[in-house]
Fold this protein.
Amino acid sequence: MTTPALHIALITETYPPQLNGVANTLGRLCEGLRARGHHVEVIRPRHESDAQLQSSDQLLLCPAWPLPGFSGWQCGHVSVRKLCNRWQRHRPDVLYIATQGPLGLSSLRAARQLGIAAIGGFYSPFPHYSAHYGLEPVKRLLTHYLRWFHQRTHMTLVATPCQRLELQRRGFARLVDHSQGVDGELFHPQRRSRQLREQWGLGEDDIALIHVGRLIAEKNLGLLERSVRQVQHLYPQRRIQLVVVGDGPQRVALHKRLPQAIFCGALQGEALARHYASGDIFVFPGLSETLSSVVLEAMACGLGVVAFDDAAAAQHIQHGHSGALAMPGDESAFIDALGWLIEDSETLRRVRLNARHHAWGQRWDLAVADLEVWLRQVAQAPVTSTTSALAPIKTDSTARPG
């Protein structure tokens, strides 16, 4: 017996063509759900590139403005009344509210007025980010708001077990692990380019250190600089070149501190995959990443990853087997881990093979299938519009649903 298709409303403040891990993940999940026959309407802020794009039954574009203090992010706004009118005409079976800004709040209120069940997503650790932007005084208030918000959804999807445990300690409930995937055919070691390495001034026996991501304060770029300088000093006999892929407000300052590094700007698709695969070691100094596409993309391309033993990296990397991990905040151990991969070519070769093997098992179709199970379960749950008390839903956070 064929199960009926769902009408799903995806509400998010960030979505492709924006370049960040959350936007990439939500875009792939939406594509996957549509490929499985579901009707997905996306409700998001209007981007600069949307000048010729009009709203439809699959897309509602909302006014947008920059999110103060968070470079590259924006808020959207739509009235509760407008959403109620839209959803009374074409009622969704379930909402997937991926962000908790004004757009997510209006959607949550409209859903509760109409009795529509909702899943929440918790992807970006804004309380942690606040310290990087001088917003530490509002951290407690922001945490209280996020907890209040997610108490009013039937469940909240989190990216890693580490994040789930942290949120549970802060009083969040009904949390479910939902890992992302990676395109193992696009991000593949076979995309390694000798020509590109020659442009970087490297031969096959030289070491290309790759860093991919938005160049912003919370990415711990100071450690990236110190790590590169230290290993170049420790291994003068090796040609070690840093290649930075990405853009952001910290690019100019980082380039001044590392004038010999190669800065490629933001890349996508095959160009991005070719840059990953043409490297040797992926250097990931971030301390607050809950959802990091770049870790899995680097592993899928067969790179040895050096990261802190936390969040996304801890979930996917087995230290000494498929990468090298340091205790969170231990910069000396991080640099030692990088040196360990550089000094022994056989160790690096083995780690890179194991990284690729692990990433191949993290497919998007599995992540989409998991999400579909949760959406079906929540769509059948009762909703109360006058109270935050929700019917209990069975959530096993230690295993895949279904």
